[in-house]
Amino acid sequence: MTMRYPRIMAAKKPISVTLDPDVLEELQRLVDAGQATSISAVINETLRSRVERARRAEQAREYVEETLLGGQALTDEELVEARGMLAASKARTEARRKGAAA
Length: 102
Known about the structure:
It holds the Pfam family RHH_1. InterPro entries: CopG, Ribbon_hlx_hlx. This is Ribbon-helix-helix protein, CopG family. This protein is mainly alpha-helical. The protein has one domain (about 20-95). About 70% of the residues lie in helices and about 0% in strands. The termini are far apart.
C-alpha cells in the first residue's frame, strides 16, 4: 500500500534548526495544550507571517517611492526618519488603546 500525502505536505522540505531550550519548551507546551498541531507547524506559521510582513513592507516602500516620490528611491536618512515616525505613531496608538481600556 502506497501512502499518498496531500500536495501541500509533499511541498514541505525538512530542515534542521537550533532553538533555545526555553523556546522549545514553550513550543512543546503549545502543542501539548492543543493550541498547535506540531512544533513544525508553529515554526512554519511564524516564519510565513514574517515573510509576509517583509513582502508587505517592500510593497509599501515601492508604493512610496513610485507614487509619492516620483520614482526616486528613499535615502537611508529618509528611511530612518520614516521608521521613527512609524514607531512614534505606533506608541501613540498603543497609549490611546491603553487609555481607552482603563
